Each structure stands twice: as C-alpha cells, then as structure tokens.
Sequence to fold (326 residues):
Amino acid sequence: MIFNITNITNRLNKELNAYKFGAEPAELYDPVYYMLALGGKRLRPVLTVLGASLFTTELEPVYKPALAVEVFHNFTLMHDDIMDKAALRRGQQTVHEKWNANIAILSGDVMFVKSYELLSAIDSKLLPEALKKFNACAAAVCEGQQLDMNYEQAAAINEEQYLHMIEKKTAVLLGFSLELGGLIAGAAKKDLLLLNQLGVNLGMAFQLKDDLLDVYGDPEKFGKQPGGDITANKKTFLLVKALELAKGEDKKKLTALLADGSTTKPEKKIKDVCALYDKLHIQQLTEEKIESYFSKADKCLHTLGGSLFSKSHLKKFIAKLRARES
Fold:
C-alpha cells in the first residue's frame, strides 16, 4: 500500500467496518454501528498512524489502537448530543433522537468499554503507560465537557477560560492520538512530549477554525447554514472576544441580542451579531489566534525527530487542516 493520508484513512475505515462490537441486544449495538457509519474525518486515528510512522515502518500493530481513539471520540459525541439536545449529527438523526436517551447512554458506555478493548491490542509492555495516558486524557475530556456546560450558564467568561476549556474538551485527545502512535513505535520521551504538544496545538487550531467557519464559512463547503452558534448563544471564541472588546452602545446591542430568546427571526439576529463582529474585527482576530496555534504546531514538527519522509506527510496533513473550509 502506498503511504498517504487517503490510504491510511481507507484502511482505518476498513478496520472499523470489520470490527465486531457485538450483536445482542440489538438496541445496544445497532446505535454503535449507526454512529460510526455517519463518517467523519477520522482525524484522530490518522494522527496516531502518522505519529507512529515517524519512528517505524511497521504500522500493522498501530491500526487497532488507533481505532480506540476514534471509538472513544464518537462515544463522547454520542453523550454530548444528549446533553446538548442536538437533533442532528453530520446531517443525520442523533442516536438519542433515532432511538432514545437511555439507549444512547448505554450505547455510548459500551463504546467507551470497546475503546479500551481496542487499545489493549498494543504490546503488553507498553500497555500500562498507554492506559495511564489514555485515562488522563479521558478524564480531561470529561472535565472540558463539564466546563463547557458550566460556561453556557455563566453570564460571561474570558478568553483564557474559553481556551482552557477547548484544550481539555477537544485538543488533549489530538495530543494523545499523536503520542499514542509514537509510544507504539518506540519514540523517545522527548519526542513523545513533542508529539503531544503538536497534537494539542492542532486541536486548539481545529476547534477555533470550527468556531470561525460556523459564522464565516461557505454553506456549500461547510455543509450547513452559518450562524448556528449565534442563534444558540453558544460561547465560542468569537463571542467571548466580542463581549470583551465591545464598548458603549456596541456592548448594549450585543447584550440585548444575546438576551433575545425569540426564534422567529434568527436570520436578523445572525446578521446583527455578524455586523458587530465585523466592526470589532473578530474574524481577523480569530484567524490570528488560529495561526498562532498552527505556528506552534509547526515548531513542534520542526523539532521532532523521526523519518523525514513521514514528517513530510504530517506536514501535508497539517497544511490540509490549515486550509480546510468544512
């Protein structure tokens, strides 16, 4: 197989489709297969394979553990959808809408268990360290989700709080994904640390880009109409920054727009909030923050040891994330 991102992704999807999570009771396992069949970028397991490829050419032992991070990620999405009362995931019904919340909770639980089963495929000598790192990562993701829910109820949060939350909720799993690949491949401790830092910085940039695309993305490319976060008063980097910078009449207007619970004219609310964002140069500030994290990732990659050939593929992957419009 030619080593490239497309082939890695195809191989991961093939392994995921072939994996037997269970069959009975069908109400427990059917939602698992349904959730994973909804697709996704497979960003995290691809990073695990790329992380390993820097330090070994023997990648067969990497694929099952790589799937562990993807299954864990989808478990968090299944439970997040319940908490967010989300009706759609990737354009399809969420599990709790298609079945019910109790089934979604249990199916998510079994996905969490199966992520450990997949992770345990690694060499027994490496397993204790992998489990230690995975447990720390999983706990951080839960902490991030709780902070997110706390912040939704808060009158205001600052930029530092928001960045801390998305680091835990989103970025740490990308850091673990890359580090796991390096661990399986026998990378040195200094390189494992760099892999983790690289992944965390990519995760920060990735989430901030999501925030940006929700407002300024092309609906044809982003796959949904912009402004969903504005309509829901979701505390994104853009909103947090706007609340920090708005003064006088702008502050009053933004506060009033957020206090408006009407759903009859969401287009007007989106338009008015966007006008304030434009006035405050929020798009530019967000793009600068995104680029600052990509620059940190670039520095980690430059310092990182390992195969120059594989580094070139990781560099291309980062460039693709940088340029993404969906």
